């Protein structure tokens, strides 16, 4: 559907500028569309799926054998993992009928959750030299995404 300011005519044809009333009506349409999108909440299942998809990556990586099969298994697993993540994102966009990005204010709780996770990882891996910390990192990140999703869905989910 074309707005008041759009036409089906060729762009080579000189068009008079819109009248103030037409411009105001077009801006009203844009504001109405923006308002309807801001009420959309990302479904909780999306965060659960992404968290569950990310969490096992570290532990599964520890199972990859060394040469000669290791790199091939890693690349195959990476392709499957990326396709799965793309499928999750595609499904949520298809169901929501819009790709809505979270605002920096909405992302702040995720930073609050992930900062202690990253500090703990730095301490466990870098300072204490615990080799399992790398495998545990993706589990902690997956759980953090799920916790963030619960918070976002039930506390701060609407876009601003």
From TrEMBL:
Name the chain's protein: Uncharacterized protein
Q: Which domain of life is it from?
A: Bacteria
Region Disordered, annotated ranges? 1-22
The residue ranges crossing the membrane are: 44-64, 70-93, 105-124, 130-150
- What are the entry keywords? Membrane, Transmembrane, Transmembrane helix
Q: Does the keyword Transmembrane helix apply?
A: yes
């Amino acid at each position: 559907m074309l707005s008041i300011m759009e036409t089906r005519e060729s762009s080579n044809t000189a068009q008079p500028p819109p009248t103030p009333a037409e411009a105001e009506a077009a801006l009203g349409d844009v504001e109405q569309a923006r308002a309807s999108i801001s009420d959309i909440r990302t479904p909780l299942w999306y965060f659960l799926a992404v968290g569950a998809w990310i969490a096992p990556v570290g532990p599964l990586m520890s199972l990859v054998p060394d040469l000669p099969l290791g790199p091939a298994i890693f690349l195959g697993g990476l392709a499957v993992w990326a396709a799965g993540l793309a499928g999750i994102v595609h499904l949520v966009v298809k169901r929501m009928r819009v790709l809505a990005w979270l605002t920096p204010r909405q992302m702040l709780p995720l930073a609050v959750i992930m900062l202690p996770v990253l500090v703990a990882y730095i301490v466990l891996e870098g300072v204490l030299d615990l080799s399992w910390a790398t495998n545990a990192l993706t589990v902690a990140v997956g759980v953090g995404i799920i916790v963030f999703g619960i918070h976002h869905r039930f506390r701060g989910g609407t876009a601003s």
